[in-house]
Amino acid sequence: MLRPSFFTRNNQRFALAPASFVPIGLLALLVLRFGGCAENSSTGTADERNPSSQIQPTGEEFLIGVLDEVDAISNSVPARGRGSLHGGIEPNAIMPAAVHKLQISASTFDTTFIYGETTSDGYGAVVTERHQYPKGMLLITVRKTHGKSQGKVVSQTRKYVSFADFRIDRAQQSNVTEVYGLSRDTIVTHVFRNGILETYTFRLPVVTRIVNPGDGSVRITSRFGSSGAVVSEVRDGSGTLIQHRSSSGLADGSIVSYTQFADSSWRSVRTVGRSDGSVFREVTSGR
Which band of pLDDT confidence, cut at 50, 70 and 90, is reported for residue 102? Predict the structure, then answer.
């Protein structure tokens, strides 16, 4: 069920130019969105190996994708036996460089790596590289995420359908998404795809409701802008607060995730990629 959204969308065409990660663990039986939404567009080929042939994501989905990426990066832990420090990443740890990509999740059909990089305009980006086999066919998704001044977070996504294309950086689909919050509840999302810059302004919270089929538990997440950051407020089915998370970027490329929990404890994680391929992660917490 969808409710009408209160948002504005502006499109602006640009010439194409070069642009300067990690799934949600919950199984979703039902996902309902309220708040910002946008029209879907599709490109017209029947080749299922080409990601661009599928229905294109909405503005809401781009927004949620960036926030989920920031959350996943902030909570990333090495897969067992893959460069972990005493079973996990310690506070203020430097993750291995790109030549020793850190594997943070692995299964038969889904493996994710993380490493650092400096963009052409000098930002320290965190890169996640995910190898999947939907319908038995390879799909490699690379996301480069970094912060900017004024709390902005930028995430570039590129998708490849073969290792040969991946090696020569010939993506079948790519986009760049920039997200930031304003002072009064509003979230602004810029999406650059197919040579067009699309701007979505969400003046109502973007809400998802996820039901876990295993135990029937419900998680409702409301996302809204506040003082230059984007806030994600998570509650259970009865409305009890689980956590209040604020996501923002810094001018050096760092991404910051500050989380307050129901027991009044808090945790702040600053993550930034480095030019040698390493990822620096600074963690502070308290009550």
Answer: confident
**Strand blocks (E) in 78-123:** 93-95, 102-107, 110-118
CA distance 223 to 245: 9
| Distance between CA atoms of residues 95 and 74, nearest Å | 13
Nearest Cα to 10, choosing from 196, 141, 137? 196
CA-atom Rg of the chain in angstroms: 18
Amino acid present at 216: G
Domains identified in the chain, total number? 1
Q: Which domain, by its residues, includes 221? A: 7-286
**Predicted model pTM:** 0.75
Does residue 2 lie within any of the structural domains?
A: no
Q: How far apart are CA 230 and CA 246, in angstroms?
A: 6
Token digits of residue 91: 């506070």
DSSP three-state, residue 63 = helix
